[in-house]
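Hi everyone,

Forwarding the result from last night's run.
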Amino acid sequence: MSPELPDADPAPPALDLTLRPATEEDTHALADLHVAARRAAVPQMPPMVHTAEQTRAWFAGILTQRQHQREAWLAERENGVVGYLVLDEDWLDSLYVASGLTGTGIGGALLDLAKGLRPEGLQLWVFQSNVRAQRFYRRHGFTEAERTDGTGNEERAPDIRMTWPP
């Protein structure tokens, strides 16, 4: 799920952006970005249920234990990591952009990458309270497939499963 989400028209492409597979050395940067972005997204998204250390361990697991089709990619500029995505088979597990940089094209560039890596289709969960994220994904061709009361997620917050292609 993602707080990447301007309400305005899509941003121009992020030309000074490098997209690359994340490595084990990126664990701390990705965990720090995730924690900061989630904190900044409250109340659009419910507060995190995991500590920063648990989040760091989760990233370490992703980056050291290549299993299934799970992979992490990051977006970086000269000053460091500015966004990331995690794919788990056909699931867009997470897509986050650094706080203060939403609306600059980073999320769109990462989402285009995900579509290119999974041209057969993607699905994701987004919180019902995160209306900006829903708009972002709809602008990029995702459609609503299912709504839940949140009993199936860790935050216990109502969510929506979205799919691409529609």
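The chain is about 30% helix and 25% strand.

Cheers,
N.
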